[in-house]
Amino acid sequence: MARISLDHLRHAYTPGLAEAGIYALREVDHVFEDGGAYALLGPSGCGKTTLLNIMSGLLTPSEGHVRFDETDVTMLSPEARNIAQVFQFPVIYDTMTVAENLAFPLKNRRVPKDEIQRRVADMLGRLGMTQKGKRKARGLTADEKQKISLGRGLIRSDVAAILFDEPLTVIDPHMKWQLRSELKALHKEFAMTMVYVTHDQTEALTFADKVVVMYEGEVVQIGTPEELFERPQHTFVGYFIGSPGMNVLPCALESGEAVVSGQRLRLPAHFGPAGGQMAQGRRIELGIRPEFVSLVPRGEGLPVTIERVEDVGSEKIVRARLGDLPVSAIVKEDASLPAEADIAFAPHALNLYSDSRLVDTTPGAARATASGRTA
Ligand SMILES: Nc1ncnc2c1ncn2[C@@H]1O[C@H](COP(=O)(O)OP(=O)(O)OP(=O)(O)O)[C@@H](O)[C@H]1O
Asked: Membrane-spanning regions, if any (predicted)?
């Protein structure tokens, strides 16, 4: 297994696009640690597949380098990089049996016969396909074929990394959970470097130790599921992760207060220096997750109009409007809702954003804030 370093990668699909400044990847500079389980998460078109294909060698980046440990592999083919790939749709040999398909990558590497038999039997068990080992792959369901593709990727122990591109798209919903758990178990057991592309936050958060969130050709945050939830480094992360996503409220800062939709909100004390030194002309926003918004009696917070309440099991999602801004709150199922409500924000959970990037409001960070950098 290898540590994969992406060194100042940029990619435009044609020289014309590069000249026009249209990059599918704008700047990616990141290290995937040896043995880590990563998810590349982001909406359609944000550059996930482009990045994965650059890592696998299917695509050569316009700029920058890819290194596997200390070796520069930027110009090497996928075969020369020794990686396993699992694609969105199954890639298997219909005329071979299920077992032969699984054995194929091992035979190619001249693994001894008895070792192949042992590993194939083990993988068939893990995939729940022991009874189907001798069946021809032709005629299997799309689910089953994709499970074989996964098995073929996972059966080799000598690969630098395993790259998955939305591998569960064709899998039946109730099987997805089982296969994800199996992938996670295999990762724990063999500590393989795995990179898993998805646009589904549940898939990303349950599979990965670290989630790499991409937006418009850039990595906007790399973090554990908890970090992405608690401290979104970019408003997009706040909006994309969570259901409903983080409330993002445009505001102006004035002597320790935020003016949100014409209402004044006293900010936690530590926001003072950061807010005071914020450069003029920036787009300033407050971020607060619905889990940290509460409904309080009129006069105790910011006045809102409740527009609707959605019942979601043990909780209710309250959709309200603060002036012209939509705000969501998550409250307990049995919480009573005042007819005329205000909203209050848990101070510890308030985040401040400048041009979509999180402002470090911890004491001592004012200098970085003033120059526009974020932590
Ligand atoms: N072969 C290509 N030629 C030109 N532009 C491309 C090509 N492939 C992708 N793009 C563009 O590059 C950008 C990133 O695409 P990419 O497929 O990497 O995104 P993605 O996040 O994987 O999306 P999806 O989840 O829909 O696969 C998009 O704007 C896309 O239109």
From this structure: none
pLDDT tens for each residue of 25-52: 999 999 999 999 999 999 999 999 999 9
- Cα Dmax for the chain: 77
Q: Is the peptide bond before 244 cis (omega within 30 degrees of 0)?
A: yes
Q: Say how many Å lie between the CA of residue 49 and the centre of ligand 1.
A: 7
Architecture of domain 4-235: 3-Layer(aba) Sandwich (3.40)
> How do the domains of the chain map onto residue ranges?
4-235, 244-370
**By alpha-carbon position, which residue is closest to atom 4 of ligand 1?**
13
* Among 28, 49, 62, 168, residue to substitute to test ligand 1 (most atoms within 8 Å of Cβ): 49
Which residue's C-alpha comes closest to atom 25 of ligand 1?
A: 44
- State which fold the 244-370 domain adopts: OB fold (Dihydrolipoamide Acetyltransferase, E2P) (2.40.50)
Quote the pLDDT of residue 356. Answer: 94
What is the model's pTM?
A: 0.87
Indicate the SS3 state at residue 237.
Answer: helix
For the Cβ of 50 lying below 6 angstroms from any atom of ligand 1, the answer is yes
Say what the alpha-carbon torsion angle 173, 174, 176, 181 is, to the nearest 10 degrees: 160
